[in-house]
Amino acid sequence: MKFLYKIFLLLLLIPLSNSYAQLDLSHEVGVSFGPVTMQTDYGERHHLPSSMATSFGVSVAHYLSFYGSNYNWRNGASFFSDHFKLKTEISFYTNTNLEHKGQYAEQTGPFGDQIRAMKGSTKVLNIGTQLEYYFKNLEDYGLLFNDDNKFAPYVSAGVHYNSFDPEVSSDLGNYITNPSVLPLPWQDVDNSIFVEKDNTFSLSFSAGTRYKMNNFDLFVDARWQYFLSDKIDGLDAPSDLSGSKFNDTLIYFSIGAIFDLSNISR
Description:
eight-stranded antiparallel barrel, 266 residues, single chain, Porin, 8 helices
């Protein structure tokens, strides 16, 4: 598996300009930030407060367009170059508010005390690429004298490499030396709690829109990300004990700005 990770990173870092040396390309850079909500083994599935543990994310991205920065009807643009961009991104998510909520956390007695005392946090470094499809013609949208198309809505899908670092604790004491402070599904610490740094892949699906300003674009984006692991939060107890049968996911709402590098260099 480590070999596959290295191959993925190598492919990601190969200069894209070499692959498309014969094409007329344009480049953009973007920065964004916004709230992140995670859906994990904390809380109950389909229980809204359990899915709304909110923290923060930041991103830096490169956008590759398959046409030049200067519009020319003789360029021989295709449907692909008119409607697609390739986005390569580095992002960082952190969530320090993971806790159990719902009917089990509202119980009285030892189990209720244990599950309310259980807390978690995680940090995720995300490196990946997404292919964005724009509903409007991108060359028309980019024309300086075109003020009729201020918005450019899009959808996208991508794959990411993730390095994550979770933590688990209990307000009742040290669960490593005294596992009984944890709820029963997680008392077998060696087989249910994983707080070492680890890595995995994830899939993402997004929708958003750009809004054209004078020298840059504003954008809003909503992303759903599915991890190929159930250990992002540090918890992965056997499903017959915990009831958890699903991998971790997150939703990332972000706002940001995108700058055309050809405009910056002028």
